[in-house]
Amino acid sequence: MPLFETAPLALAATAALAYLLGSVPFGIVMARLFGLGDLRKIGSGNIGATNVLRTGNKPAAFLTLVLDAGKGGIAVLVARALLGEDAAQVAGFAAFLGHCYPVFLRFRGGKGVATFLGTLLALAWPVGLAACATWAAVAALTRISSLSALVAAVVAPLLALFLGRPDAVLLLVLLAVLILVRHAANIWRLLDGTEPRIGKKP
């Protein structure tokens, strides 16, 4: 974990602002802008890019992916520029938490994969690129988004160690645990062979 040097009040304010940024449900926003209806009543009901893709609207899905990733990345970069590395990690965690448990949707949010990858790219871009490559490789082999996300999340702390960012390991372990929790239903479907593939309706 990083050395905490920023004042506790500043860290608390950083966490609060990053959480609010993370809580913005861009999947729902894009679905409404593109006239796709209420995303929570489509496909899996998830608010992320994978479920937007199930509508068949690739531009909306792409924008959701970029914006959800951007929430984490922007939170990290701004906190780092203004306060330091400790604040950057706090901001990344808070933005991720906001996406998964958004106050604007009564704490019923997404599964955090795009926000996780965006946070990781901003926090330590070599680790982020390696995690994205892991996701892409598993997705290409299996065409299963959830499995790709789970593998990328689990290996991310190991990638951080291997690529010289031991200070980020604790954060990545916490994020990986939350991703596993958010994917509990997916894990059961993977085990019984009923998990839908990318671009298909569940």
Model description:
This protein is an all-alpha fold and 202 residues long. It has one domain. It is 69% helix and 0% strand. The longest helix has 25 residues. The model has no long low-confidence stretch (mean pLDDT 90).
Blueprint of the fold:
Layout: H1 8-22, H2 26-33, H3 49-53, H4 58-82, H5 85-100, H6 113-123, H7 125-142, H8 145-162, H9 169-182, H10 184-192
Helix pairs in contact: 1-4, 1-5, 2-4, 4-5, 4-6, 5-6, 5-9, 6-7, 7-8, 8-9
Low-confidence stretches are none
Q: Give the N-to-C terminal Cα separation.
A: 39 Å
Query: How many individual β-strands?
Result: 0
Helix-strand string? HHHHHHHHHH
Give the % helix: 55-70%
Number of domains: 1
Shape: globular
Binned strand content = under 5%
Q: Regarding quaternary structure, how should these chains be classified?
A: single chain
Number of helices: 10
Main β-sheet description: none
Task: Quickly describe the structure.
By secondary structure, this protein is mostly helical. The protein contains ten helices and no strands. It has one domain (8-192).
